[in-house]
Amino acid sequence: MIDITGWVSAYVDKLRPLLMQYRMYLLVLLAIPIVTTTYEDYCEWYKLGAGGIPHNFLGYVIQLMLSFLTGRDRRSIAWLDSPKNTELDKTSFLNTTLPTREGDRPTIGPYCVPHRQTTDAASEELKKTLQTTLSKISSDNSASLEYGSSKIEGGNSHALFVTEQMFATNHISYPRSPREIFHLHDSEGSGHGVFSKADAVLIIQKAWGEKHPLSGMALGIPESYLIIYAPRNEEEIKVVEMLARAAARHGLEGEHLL
User: 0.90 cut: is pTM over it?
Assistant: First the structure.
């Protein structure tokens, strides 16, 4: 009978010097597909633009680490029924009926930071109109709201904030920028906001947005922190304005806005 074990052992002993001699080449060959795939993914991430973390390889590594903390079902509304919900959570701050968004939802990038849509970007004209709209909401309510650069996005986007004087009543927020209630993404026209849970459910059901991957999962980000899809026309800008105002009323716990 052939001693298979002995034969394999002898064969490995013969190969060992060869493997040791060329081990560096073997490691390089094994590393090439890993490095290539990582580089291609990094380039896709980089194309999304700056947003809250360093816009370099360090930022890419940070988002890879954060991705292990993300929630999977970003259109689930199961959290509405939590026994921990407050009256504020259950209150809608929309001042009119939210219509259903027509057509398919845009594609959202696979990265948790920056969290962006990769299809159906708003035109430059629509993005400028959005910025003007957000600024006007602030100027019309200057005692309660401010307009400036988003701290959540690292100063790369425009945002609405609750004023210092009104901040004491704003108890649902993103710890990194507690007074910030809604911001735009200048890259493609989408935005993020903190809404009441009742409004967040309507927004998801009516296909105007979905949860951030880290909402309710990490960094103290509220469950009702949503991405709002970029508007495709002037009518949809009116809807985004309505949503921004709802986020503002929620941040001000129902205070009237002009």
Answer: no
